[in-house]
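Hi team,

Below is the intake form for Lipoyltransferase 1, mitochondrial-like from Ceratosolen solmsi marchali. Please confirm the fields before the structure is written into the shared record.

FORM ID: S-0412
PROTEIN: Lipoyltransferase 1, mitochondrial-like
ORGANISM: Ceratosolen solmsi marchali
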Amino acid sequence: MSVIIRTSILGTKALRKFVECSPALRHTSNNSAKIDIHEDDIKKSVFISQSTNIYTNLALEDWFYRNFDFSKHHILLLWKSDPCVVIGRHQNPWTECNIPAIEPSQVVVARRNSGGGTVYHDFGNLNLSFFTPRQRYNRRYNLDIITRALFREWGLKSTINKKQDIIVQDEFKISGTAAKLGYPNAYHHCTLLVDVNTHALSLALKKTENGITTNATESIRSPIKNLNEVNSHITIDQLLAAVGWEYLRSKPLTAHDGGHKLIEQQRGFQMVNPTEDWFPGITKLIEQFQYWDWIYGKSPKFTVTRMLEAPNTKDANRLLKLVIDVEKGIVQDVKMTLPSDLNQYASVITNLSGKPYSHKLTNSIVQATGCKVVEFDVSVDKSNVAAL
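The structure came back. Fields below:
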């Protein structure tokens, strides 16, 4: 890391001044900048976040997306996070991650602004965010930078599949990808698995909450492998440097290799401190990413269904169907098919409406009825469900 800091072309004070002045530039930028600006006039920077807090780094991405003028200056932001699970903008955390397992641990859940699937981060994972104007958004360009860096530095061959994941050994995924496209700006971000704790990853992403019906985006599970399992010489810091240099030596639009001569014309590497002093307004963005209403309440509405067996009976007619309707993370309605002699359970269930949903809430309903779960059933027959 120290080598990267010494090779920085922009000094800390100069960068801070540049960042502070940049918001005003965006609003005067021309959406046709791609046509008006020659490729040689576009400069590049590699920024490295000094924070490892997931909410802070997501806020830093959002700050650049909202405020920066990329018409003459493209940015690659590199960052790492403390252990966390990051879900896509349109996903349901209860179906994507093992909340009962991660709640007692130091693993936090975050929701990003881009779409796509769920990923696990820890210090063995390098995150990359490529920023350009919307007109120059090119996901394949960014992925080619990564694959070229892997081959140039370690002779490691990787491919980009139809889903635009980076694959090694024809099978294993080392990088997932997502994007936020707006006007005038856009960004594409991805992960690189270097030395991730795969046991923690598997536990955090293990699907344990069944019986949920929703139209939320569902992650596609894929076999993964750490890069250091393919080549033991690869480390996070070496990969960070390799990708950064490859980015700086590549032409901004055509990706032609400009070598060291092009590197000398760029703005280089620079550590950035995502604080209010450097990025005015970022504190509010950090708070927004931490809100329960964003992480959980942003989930598309969903229905939880459980099939229960009444106590002290094996009669199939004593099976009960529990249905919980959830919207914006809040329980809207709790319904159950009830034999006439079990009406005493209705008030217990009704009192839970309006509460934030959690797996503990479902378990509390089951325990209150004295029933046991006999199967999960995601098909809800509305004609045989009584509203309570």
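SUMMARY LINE: Residues 1-12, 23-35, 377-388 have pLDDT under 50 and may be disordered.

Thanks, M.
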